Amino acid sequence: MALEIGKKAPDFTLLDQDGNKVKLSDFKGKRVIVFFYPKAMTSGCTREACDFRDEVAAFRKKKAVVLGISKDTPASQKKFQEKYQLPFPLLSDADLAVQKGWGAWGTKNMYGKMVEGTIRTTVIVSPDGKVEQLFSKVKVDGHVASVLEAL
After folding, report:
1. What is the pLDDT of residue 1?
2. Active site (annotated) includes residue 45
3. What are the strands, taking DSSP E only, across 44-141?
4. What does the alpha-carbon distance between residue 42 and residue 51 come to, in Å, rounded to a whole number?
5. Which of the 8 DSSP states describes residue 72?
6. How far is 17 from 84, CA to CA, in rounded Å?
7. pLDDT averaged over the chain?
8. Active-site residue among 22, 45, 66, 138?
9. Share of the chain above pLDDT 70, in %
């Protein structure tokens, strides 16, 4: 199932890097930037997370919160957050339910080989909980600037 612009984003409850439950619906009334990344501490994911970190003030000015989601454990997310001083929640989707439900899991080409995995995806959820913008098969370079522009 893939998301559709203008339709309600499916709610979720996931554990953050500190083991706290975080729900999408907790952010009702705010724009939410949800970015799905394959694996904490890998080069592309680190660059993407740090780009979001470096623009977090700009997102806050636009009344948007940032949430990162991967299949990493809360403990791995915690190490990633601390090492790179990431000022937003990193959520653990270990069973892949959210990634699959949001269209961020599937077959992708990795170094010329077709594999199942996280498809780097970013979704902007409107203050009323609808999908406002969808970026799929994201290329890291320049991506965060594109997300900011879309706001």
Report:
1. 53
2. yes
3. 64-70, 90-92, 105-110, 113-118, 121-125, 131-136
4. 14
5. S
6. 13
7. 93
8. 45
9. 99
